[in-house]
Amino acid sequence: MKYIGAFLAAILVMLPAAGAFAAHPSTIGEAESSTASDLIVVKKPETTNSATTKTTYGVTGTGKNGVSVAYYRYDNGVYTAILNSEGAASRTKIGAAGVFYKQMSLTEGHNKFAVRAEYNGYSQVVYFDINLLKKEVLDNVNSFTYDVQSIFTGWI
After folding, report:
1. How far is residue 44 from each of residues 40, 90, 104, 153, measured CA to CA in Å?
2. Residue 82 within any structural domain of the chain
3. 78 assigned to some structural domain
4. 144, exposed or middle or buried, with CB in 10 Å at 0-12, 13-18, 19+?
5. Which of 40, 46, 65, 142 has a CA 20 to 30 Å removed from the CA of 20?
6. Which SS3 state, helix, strand or coil, does residue 33 take?
């Protein structure tokens, strides 16, 4: 009888955690509305539009303990869940430290992502774009800045 009680207690402990991960859909639309605004705060990227020359980008944020976070990439009019190495949807459950992190791979040009948080039936979606620049573009910008500075050297 002791074993049955322990088994049932273990099942009751595991069910909420499994439910938190099962709730995220495999796709979301471009304008899915949030039912909460305080589940997570995306810290990086700092703005909804960012640019980089690196092929990977670490998305970081903070949130409430127990919040489940899922990651999506835009493709053909819909945001599709990013898969992990096992082929399952990549998700994070925020722990006591209150942080989440996901390394996103980028393709050249415009990359659109969404981070979806869910907790106790409430959801929050944060959309952002990361533009992967060619190294030559950054070199041209830096060269232009240097040229403009050299024009004014000695005037000030």
Report:
1. 12, 18, 12, 36
2. yes
3. yes
4. exposed
5. 46
6. coil
* Per-residue model confidence as pLDDT tens for the chain (156 residues): 554 544 444 444 444 444 444 479 999 988 888 999 999 999 999 999 999 999 999 999 999 999 999 999 999 899 999 999 999 999 999 999 999 999 999 999 999 999 999 999 999 999 999 999 987 655 556 555 555 566 666 565
Quick check: is 153 in a domain? no
Q: Which domain holds residue 130?
A: 2-147
> Is residue 43 domain-resident?
yes
In whole angstroms, what is the distance from residue 128 CA to residue 130 CA? 7
Instruction: Please report, for the domain that includes residue 108, its CATH number.
Output: 2.60.40.10
Both structure tokens of 83: 């898969």
Number of domains in the chain: 1
**Which residues are 16's β-sheet partners?**
none
- Say how many C-beta atoms besides its own lie within 10 A of residue 129's C-beta: 15
Distant-in-sequence, close-in-space partners of 87: CB < 8 Å, separation ≥ 6: none
- The three-state secondary structure class of 35 is coil
